[in-house]
């Protein structure tokens, strides 16, 4: 039905691990994007302080 696991009655241990890995990768991406935004905002704050 959902195409997970090897049969109709269970889920392979590899499937949840793959889902967890994909979630971790997405969280890493989100954190990296937030770090870029933080750096940009920090530069703007320094610019404003120097006026």
Write the layout of secondary structure elements.
Layout: H1 14-49
Explain the overall architecture.
By secondary structure, this protein is an all-alpha fold. The chain has one domain. 71% of the residues lie in helices and 0% in strands. It has one helix and no strands. It has one helix spanning 14-49.
Which structural traits does this protein have?
51 residues, mainly alpha, 1 helix, 71% helix, rod-shaped
What do the pLDDT scores average to? 86
Q: Count of DSSP E strands?
A: 0
**What low-confidence regions span 5 or more consecutive residues with pLDDT below 50?**
none
The helicity comes to over 70%
Strand content: under 5%
Radius of gyration: 21 Å
Number of discrete domains? 1
Series of secondary-structure elements, N-terminal to C-terminal: H
Protein name: Peptidase S74 domain-containing protein
Organism: Candidatus Opimibacter skivensis
